[in-house]
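Example record

The entry below shows one chain as it appears in the dataset: sequence first, then structure tokens.
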Amino acid sequence: MSVQKILLVRVSSLGDVVHNMPVIADIRRWYPEAQIDWLVEESFVGLVQLVDGVHRVLPVALRRWRKRFASRASWREVRAFRRALAAENYDLVIDCQGLVKTAWMARMARGQLVGLANRTEGAGFEWPVRFFYDRRVPIAPHTHVVERTRQLVAAALNQPPPQPTDPIDFGLNRQRAAQALAAEGLNLPVPYVVFVHATSRADKQWPEAAWLELGSILIRRGMSIVLPWGSAAERLTSERLANAFGAAGIVPPQLPLAAVVGLIDGAAVTVGVDTGLVHIAAALKRPTVELYNFETAWRTGGYWSPEIINLGGAGREPRLSQVLSALADLGLLSPPSHDPV
């Protein structure tokens, strides 16, 4: 099968966009000269542009268009988007998301359309999409989100499915991420730890008291705590924690995602809940402690590097003592017995 041009459709969310990245390196191993384009929500364009091997990033503004549905400007943008999407002839268009909205957009592109045949556990999938696709790929229900997309793309390209021992490369360009961070003019003290406390779901959060205690222990070891945020509510929490940490607590301005990648890449460790920024840390294969309140680490947690440690589960909120032990296992902390655990 000769493949020259491929369009990947994975528009959201942040964590899912990150988990989609390894298929770029997979495709390049099979077809080094292939042109790989990626259709994604406009807010994630800067992140996808960091992935080595992506030829062109096509932005879509579904979230913004929905908010301004009656706007003439929005409908002009929609028409321009449709024209741009249909302007290229693709050998393959692969809908990696499996939703009606993504299948609908993928159908606008010119090329054979391949997508998922079924839902996997915990993942989004809407059964009417099967009527949009020229080919459908079945995936075992109990499959990690990274492997789901890798298996889909391999099947679409008539390649053997990835094996557990196969390398997983997210392809994030560290040099460009560092340049994006430098352009923001931040002067961060080293070493620093990134705390990712914010998530879209309250039941995924870790208690604020635990963040305060962990931060105090790390500060006594000479580290600073950096608290990124993405919304007004998240900023208030970051500022409240930083005030408790004193001079060692740092709340950066709201950063573009490319700069956030640079921030995380420079951290001694990232500790955080099941959300996009933590998945970026895992994708970079940097020291990462992922905190779970559900039995979902098998589905979204990092497993491709010994630098990633997943803690917690359903009814087993991660304890501070477990986080300290994880940091010790990563060689970043050896908590003395008098520290509270």
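Notes for this example: The longest strand covers residues 35-41. The chain has two domains: 5-156, 176-329.
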